[in-house]
Specification:
Thiamine-binding protein; four-stranded antiparallel beta sheet; 4 strands; 3 helices; UPF0045_domain; Alpha-Beta Plaits; MTH1187/YkoF-like; 102 residues; alpha+beta
Length: 102
């Protein structure tokens, strides 16, 4: 993996129910990209080889939220990019915390 991003999408809406509905649509979009991703309680991590593809996904997350019905959206984005090497994968970062007890 050469790139990973974490994105928290914050739609400006009047209810928690609407926040969840819009964020669900953004996550569905992320899932549709076919890239490996992990949904956490405050952000979604996405990993891939192509930095430009990840940046396009980040951009589109904002557009999906607007299309879903909010008038404005904020986002916090973390980017890890190593063009000449590998970044830690989602599993390497948190896999040990999510393994079932044997």
């Amino acid at each position: 993996m050469k790139s990973s991003v974490a994105i928290q999408v914050l739609p400006a809406v009047d209810s928690d129910q609407e926040v969840c509905r819009i964020v669900d649509e953004v996550i569905a979009y992320i899932a549709s990209t076919g890239l490996n991703y992990y949904v956490g309680p405050c952000e979604t991590a996405i990993e891939g080889e192509d930095y430009d593809q990840l940046m396009e996904i980040v951009k589109n997350c904002q557009k999906i939220a607007i299309k879903a019905g909010c008038k404005s959206v904020s986002a916090y984005v973390k980017i890890n990019y190593r063009p000449e090497g590998k970044v830690l994968t989602i599993d390497q970062k948190i896999g040990k915390y999510h393994k079932d007890a044997e």
